[in-house]
Amino acid sequence: MRIELQINGEAHEADVWEGESLLFALREQLGFPGSKNACEQGECGSCSVLLDGTLVCSCLVLAAQAEGHEVVTVEGLADDGRLHKVQEAFVAAGAVQCGFCTPGLVVAAADLLKRNVYPSDDDIREALSGNLCRCTGYAKIFDAVRMAAAAL
Amino acid sequence: MSETASPKLELGRVGDSTPRIDGVPKVTGEFAYSSDLQAAGMLWGHTVRSPHAHARIVSIDISEAVGMPGVHAVLTHEDVPGEKRYGLEFADQPVLAYERVRYYGEPVALVAAEHPEQARRAAGRIRVEYEPLEPVVDPERATEQDPLHPDRPTMSHGYRDDPRPNVVRSLLIRHGDPEADGEVTVSGVYEVGIQDQAFLGPESGLAVPDGEGGVDVYVATQWLHVDRDQVAPCLNLKPEQVRIHLAGVGGAFGGREDLSMQLHGALLALHTDRPVKIVYNREESFVGHIHRHPAKIWAEHRSTRDGKLVNVRVRILLDGGAYASSSTAVTSNAASFAVGPYAVDNALIESTCVYTNNPPCGAMRGFGAVQVCFAHEAQMDKLAEALDIDPIELRLLNALGPGGSLPTGQKITGTLPVADVIRRAAELDIPEQEELPRDPMRLPGGSGNTTRGEGVRRGVGFAVGFKNIGYSEGFDDYTAARVRLDADGSAEVHCAAAEVGQGVANVILQVARTELGSSDVVLAPHTTATVDSAGSASASRMTWMAAGAVRDACRAALEERQQNGGKAVDVERIYRHPRTTPLDPETGQITGERAHVAYACAAMRVVAEVDVELGLTRVVWIGTAQDVGKAVNPQAVTGQIEGGTAQGLGLALMEEIQTRDGLITNASFTDYLIPTTLDMPPVVSVLIEEAEPDAPYGVKGVGEPPTVVSTAAVVAALRAATGRELTRVPVKPDDIVGL
Q: pTM of whole model > 0.80?
């Protein structure tokens, strides 16, 4: 079936199979491989995107459900080549190791800071608790979110 | 496929904190992981796996699958053109199963199709008839059951000749007088569950036929050249016809030392003459790689009344699962470090690894030292209590250091500041207990809102541990680096060291900048095609080995350029660490100066709160001091410590692969839990920099020591809070409540 949707502010269309997830369509059909597939069960947050401004796991959304809606992926966070403050902070704080969880964490952290300009440490922990990272132990990710919050 | 050299690193020489060279592409989503690769005309591969832990294969019927829509190839063991078996150290594992399957999830057949769903559906139409056999699942009984590998693939390699069936390796270390008596004796039995590496990026890669009978494989791996050396014989190709290129790696932790899709992708690509991509899902990943060995450890410590260790006797049983992988080295490591970083004149250590039909085990961060650290630190606390001595004092009294010896007879010739890491970790200030009531987010069990904290008890635990750096027991280990230095001073460095997230790419560039005195340095893609082997990104060896090779190649390039009047040069150099020799197969004693190259140690202090009514835990704070030699990139070093600590905490509190008759029952992130943001406390890291004399710039590996100690330290805190023995990890709520 054919779907039309907005991705990072631009109109896109794709021919998808009925059972196809939004994640698969983004990665394999629409040219947005930044969102990662790590669990396919909504447990790890590596595929996090914004669907009409709401943070979702794109592995749990059918591509067909995104018909007519607006999706923002990690590729859409930088503004005209200028990194988002969260992206800058992740690099500066050493919050990236293998980086497989990073796209999802960056999207989730940007979403947190949009809703909460001065997050407490508990706010940060809670907001990112749906994003698994196996490399960092999260300490430098917390540093990065605090750093980005201060810079925004 | 396009491959470009890295962007220039603008900042940093050896000793500077430098931002990751791949940091920007990783935060923007542009970085290409092995699962992101595409090629024109690409097919999707799928692996058909055994639903049995142990069965005879009666027949395989592919006729229906071959005719399914979009299907281009269906392959079985009959289609393997070369060697039928491969292995990291011993070729005991079938490329595709024949005659019988030995573990749940063992690959039996392959499909390539236009769409992954077509491949999955065709896989469902392959009819494999199995005759189930009784699985060998109890490692304590494995040596009395029928052999899973009657040809005994790991015997006759210089190891002790152990005639019992299903022994992968057994090692006996006799040190001093193994019967020596002490005045006080404590004993215990400890168990460690099976842990998964749980890297976030599942196994994946792309195999591309070269049109001339060879193949290029782009894959997430830890050692490119050893992949090539296993793949080529099975394809009946020359090594140079198989080129392995590093694709973006989504974490490794030992789980990518063995092959996953490399051979299968190459087989399908050569059969179809099309590029073939294989991507495991999470469930497949749990059966698609080896795991940390589960262990049972019997320990007896004998000491004088004032706390000096007299004799330590330890028996270790490791479950290797169905295939050998790196089990022989894990067996030896567990034995070498069974006593912990303590000096003791007498010891008797027996370490045995057995084949079973449980999930295959091999390398995971800590490699044998994690399991024994959990046991020896529990024993040291038990001894301290029996003697009524402060546990830190007991550890200091027995601390190993330079000039001391391991039970293998090897003298510590390099640095090993055990007493120093103990003192520095012990003197860190711990946070005061937070008053009740408080936000449920900061209670054990998180925001479940099941209690107001009436049952919360606090405990402080401590542990120290150590591990070898580099490959041991006579392995001829080396790393190659190649430097192309142009007349204008710009340079390109080639090194096949796998960047798995640990930051070795930065290390290579920082060394090259330091040696060449120039910022104009780029790192070429990691591949087998342009440079000799770098060895494995494992055993906490890659920083040391890559730094040595790149340093030597840079110095040689500068010298050569000076001699030829400033013209461009291209030189390759091989770096080797000091030579090691095997252990004596009968006594477990060294046969030369050393069996291990060097060691690194760490000590850790943990504050935990335990709700003793609900059985829930919250680790509040962790402080650690680690022996790091020289920190090449201090930010990356603390990142390794924090991340390594989290993996040990996971083993202590939640991580275990569950099996029933050899079948994995929790192969998902819903059922196999790893620490989240709500589980990890702040980690305070103190870096002890004491230059290792044999290493370039005095470096040591830093990845493993935090994982070695954190499981032991976290459980020590839980024991202090609950007063229970807690002899098995992961500790479950039932263990805490005493059900």
A: yes
